[in-house]
Amino acid sequence: MIRLGVTGGIGSGKTSVCNVFGVLGIPVFSADAEAKRVMEVDTGIILKLNAIAGRDLYTAGVLDRSALAKLIFNNRSMLEKVNSVVHPAVFSRFNEWAKKQSAPYIIMEAAILFESGGWKMVDRIVAVTAPVDERIARVVRRSNITKEEVMERMQNQTSDIDKIKRSDYVVDNSENEMIIPAILNIHSDILKTVKK
């Protein structure tokens, strides 16, 4: 079974692309959603995150995401410590999930596929791109954060140029591009490989 990684910077439209693959019957594992989930329910991870932060990040019974964001977004070493706790748990869950799938190929959707080392767990990679101004507008519209906060998060992610260089396919998800034909081409290319 081929494992396809789908990545792209914040606001690029990875989820929209993965929704189309889902309609084609391809199972999608969202590493980002799983990371959020394990930080809420895995007691071992909760204890480790509190130890890294030096305080209780769960005073209201749920993770205080804005406190965690303040800790890691301008502190590379703190970000690496948090990632070293969360990423192995997410990858382990991906492997367990993958064993239960029966489709010709499966997808791991991850914003930080390269930064997390997740690229080592997939056979091929799709980079989803869009112009920076469109990405910022999308994130500001859907989330309760400012343009400046979106730009800070972008700075912690691999650039589109680097993602494209390291990917097998690119889907341009700008407002004036049609993503479905690009996704159908990728789908058919992978199915040809599977049939070989």
Descriptive tags:
196 residues, Rossmann fold, alpha/beta, globular, 10 helices, five-stranded parallel beta sheet
Structure notes:
This protein is 57% helix and 12% strand. The chain has 196 residues and is of the alpha/beta class. Helix 2 crosses helix 3. The protein contains ten helices and five strands, in the order βαβααααβαβαααβα. It has a five-stranded parallel beta sheet, sandwiched between helices. It is globular and about 55 Å long. It has a domain of 121 residues: Rossmann fold.
Summary of the model, kept short:
With 196 residues, the chain is an alpha/beta fold. Helix content is 57%, strand content 12%.
What is the 3D form?
globular
Count every beta strand, where a strand is a DSSP E run of 2 or more residues: 5
CATH superfamily of the domain at 2-27 and 101-195: P-loop containing nucleotide triphosphate hydrolases
The major sheet is characterized as: 5 strands, parallel
Distance between the termini: 12 Å
Radius of gyration: 17 Å
Count of discrete alpha- or pi-helical segments spanning 4 or more residues: 10
CATH architecture of the domain at 2-27 and 101-195: 3-Layer(aba) Sandwich
- Beta-strand portion reads 5-15%
Instruction: Give the fraction of residues assigned to helices.
Output: 55-70%
pLDDT averaged residue by residue:
93
The CATH first-level class of the domain at 2-27 and 101-195 comes to Alpha Beta
Content-based structural category:
alpha/beta
Give the H and E element order. EHEHHHHEHEHHHEH
CATH topology of the domain at 2-27 and 101-195, what is it called? Rossmann fold
Low-confidence stretches: none
Strand order of the largest sheet: 2-3-1-4-5
